[in-house]
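Query structure, 387 C-alpha cells:
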C-alpha cells in the first residue's frame, strides 16, 4: 500500500494536465496567482455519498490498510470533497517500478474519464484507513508532504478513517494537514544539511583535492523534493518549540447530506421495528478485543520510545567523546572544529515525535474507552438492581 500512495502524489500533475477535445487548455495566469495566494483551508465539507464510498472501501479491506484519492474544490476557505476513488491493490510479486507505472496509468485514466463525463476531477488530497492512529508514521508524513508540495500547501488534506472504531458505533473520521510549523522545521533541517554538506566538501580530507562547485542555499531556497532524508535535530525542535502535537493541523469536518438522503434516513428511522429499540444491547461491554489490541499498541509504542531515548543517549556519548577529541586539535580553525562536531550524526527526532504522538493518542483512546465502559457498568448495575 505504501508504494501506491508514494507514487500517487508524483503523478498528480501529469494526470491533471490532460487535453480536452484534443485542444490544450490555456490557464488564466491572474486566476492562478489568486489561487496561489488564497487563504488556508479552514474547514472540510464532504458529501455523504463520498463518505459512504470511502467507508465501504476501507471496511471491505479490514484488516488491510488501504488508501484512495479525494476530488473536489476549494470554495472560499472551505474544501469541498465531491468525489473519490480507491487506489488499486497489487500482488506482492510486482516490483516498485511496475506498481508505480500501473498507478500512473490508473490515475490518468480515472481523471480523464471523470473529465469526459464532466465530473469534478480536481485532486484535493487523499484518504487512508487506520487503526489506533497507526497512520502516524514516516510514510504518511512523506506522502502528505508530497501532496502539499505538488498541489499547494494551503489546499490539500489527508482524511483518516478508522473502520474498527466506527464499527463500535463511533464515526471516526478526521482531516489533517501538515502544519506550518512542521514545514518550517523541514526548511531549517534542509538548510542545516546543505550547510553540513558544504563544510564536508571543504574540509573532508577525502575530498580536499577535488574541485567541486559548492551549492549555497539561502533562506529563500525551495523546500526539498522529499523529506525521506531530512534529519530533524533537537536544536530545531527547541528553536521552533515543535512538539508531537504540532506535526499535523486538524481541520473540522462537515458532512453534507442531500435532501433525498435526509428523507431516506428519516423514513428509515420511522420504519424501524419497535423490538430493536428495547433490551440492553446498548449496555454491551464485550469489547475485550479492542482493549487487548489497545494495550498491545501501548506496549509497542512504549518500547519504541525507549529505543529512541537509547539512540539519543548513545549520540550524546559520541558527541562528548568528539568534543574531547576536538579540544586537543589546537591547530584547527573554529569553523573546522565546528564541522568536526557536526559530523557526529544526531538521530532523526521525527521518529521520536511520531512515536510520542502515537503513544499519546493511544492513551487518550484507552482512557475514553475505559471511562465509557465504567459508565456502562454502573448503568447496567442500576438496571439489574431495579429488576
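Result returned for the query:
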Amino acid at each position: 500500500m505504501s508504494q501506491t500512495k508514494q507514487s500517487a502524489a508524483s503523478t498528480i500533475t501529469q494526470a491533471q494536465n490532460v487535453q480536452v477535445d484534443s485542444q490544450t487548455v490555456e490557464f488564466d495566469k491572474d486566476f492562478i496567482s489568486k489561487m496561489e495566494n488564497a487563504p488556508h483551508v479552514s474547514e472540510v465539507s464532504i458529501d455523504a455519498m463520498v463518505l459512504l464510498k470511502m467507508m465501504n472501501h476501507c471496511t471491505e479491506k479490514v484488516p488491510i490498510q488501504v488508501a484512495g484519492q479525494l476530488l473536489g474544490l476549494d470554495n472560499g476557505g472551505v474544501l469541498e470533497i465531491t468525489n473519490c476513488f480507491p487506489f488499486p491493490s497489487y500482488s506482492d510479486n510486482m516490483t516498485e517500478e511496475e506498481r508505480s507505472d500501473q498507478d500512473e496509468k490508473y490515475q490518468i485514466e480515472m481523471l480523464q474519464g471523470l473529465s469526459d463525463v464532466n465530473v469534478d476531477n480536481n485532486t484535493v488530497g487523499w484518504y487512508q484507513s487506520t487503526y489506533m492512529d497507526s497512520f502516524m508514521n514516516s510514510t504518511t508524513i512523506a506522502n502528505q508532504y508530497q501532496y502539499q508540495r505538488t498541489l499547494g500547501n494551503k489546499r490539500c488534506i489527508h482524511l483518516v478513517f478508522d473502520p474498527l472504531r466506527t464499527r463500535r458505533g463511533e464515526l471516526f473520521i478526521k482531516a489533517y494537514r501538515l502544519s506550518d510549523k512542521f514545514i518550517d522545521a523541514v526548511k531549517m533541517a534542509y538548510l542545516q544539511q546543505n550547510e553540513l554538506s558544504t563544510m564536508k566538501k571543504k574540509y573532508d580530507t577525502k575530498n580536499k583535492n577535488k574541485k567541486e562547485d559548492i551549492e549555497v542555499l539561502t533562506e529563500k531556497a525551495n523546500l526539498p523534493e522529499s523529506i525521506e532524508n531530512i534529519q530533524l535535530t533537537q536544536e530545531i525542535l527547541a528553536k521552533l518549540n515543535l512538539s508531537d502535537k504540532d506535526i499535523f493541523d486538524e481541520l473540522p469536518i462537515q458532512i453534507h447530506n442531500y435532501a433525498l438522503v435526509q428523507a431516506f434516513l428519516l423514513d428509515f428511522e420511522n420504519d424501524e421495528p419497535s423490538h430493536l429499540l428495547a433490551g440492553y444491547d446498548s449496555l454491551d461491554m464485550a469489547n475485550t478485543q479492542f482493549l487487548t489490541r489497545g494495550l498491545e499498541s501501548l506496549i509497542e509504542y512504549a518500547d519504541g520510545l525507549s529505543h529512541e531515548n537509547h539512540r539519543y543517549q548513545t549520540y550524546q556519548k559520541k558527541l562528548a567523546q568528539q568534543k574531547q577529541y576536538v579540544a586537543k586539535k589546537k591547530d584547527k580553525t573554529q569553523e573546522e572544529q565546528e564541522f568536526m562536531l557536526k559530523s557526529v550524526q544526531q538521530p532523526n527526532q521525527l521518529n521520536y515525535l511520531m512515536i510520542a504522538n502515537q503513544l499519546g493518542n493511544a492513551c487518550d483512546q484507552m482512557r475514553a474507552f475505559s471511562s465509557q465502559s465504567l459508565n456502562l457498568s454502573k448503568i447496567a448495575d442500576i438496571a439489574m438492581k431495579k429488576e
